[in-house]
Prior knowledge:
The protein is of the alpha+beta class. Helices cover 42% and strands 18% of the residues.
Amino acid sequence: MRRHFGPALPQAAHLHALEQPLQEFPALTHVHEAICAPAHQLLPHTHESFEICYIHAGRGTWFAGGREWDLKPGDLYITKPGEVHGGRTDPRDPYHLYVVGLDPSALPPMGPRALDAPARDVAQAVDEAAALERGWAALDQRVIPGAQGIERIYRRLLAELDPPAPAEPAARALRLLMTQALLVELLVGVARLYAAKQGPAEPRPLAAGARPLDDRFRELTLWLSTRLADPPSLSEMAARAGLSPAHFAVRFKQQTDRTPLEYLTAARIGEAARRLRRAPDLDVGAVALELGFSSAQYFSVVFKKHMGMTPSEFREQAGI
Length: 320
């Protein structure tokens, strides 16, 4: 299968292309940054990966599914595995774009207590973004505007993956964890953008002092609090709420202002913080495993992103 920046892209003023950058994580197929030359044309092709493409600057035309769209800075779009697609840049204002490719078939199945929690979180985030994209595509729309700033995540991915692979196992493991955490951040950002474009939340009258969740989602969040160590899949949550995955993802975001994965992760980190406050002698690794994280290292990466400090720093600041 031909990829975007293989033979189909000979006209690049700048090309930063990483193919299969992590042997330990084959689901990440490529990460690219390209500044296209005025003559650039991306020939019709398909590939097995699920691509998240972002137009940082420049303009052009994109086609997929038998339709064409004019793209501009800040536009984001997803290409599905096996979909014929291609495009051309505006010769007066060539593209500067970023692409991440993920192979869904190489991600772990969503199941109880998956051993590889970081890869499970990536799979859950792909599932959310894909479900929302399916719902958005049903509205005959494929391009999502307003993603300005998301290029920072692409740049951090390239910076993380650019150096030669470290020889030390611990350094390699940390690189893998950081990359997976960045992929989750990217996918959650995509899901938030898709959900935001689905329209405003349905109006609902609230009695004085009532919680701002309808009964269906109040029950669901109570149930989720019992599943912190074994986070359910998007499909399982949707079935519990009696909705399709795409509709559920949109309604959950409207109800909680978070995607399902964001909500679950924040709940798990919040519970971890409470446990660390209550038990001065509690081992951080034990907390990580009890809340479904595969390692203390990954737990620390996620905890720092949410709390602004590592679990150890949190305990010190709390005076534990």
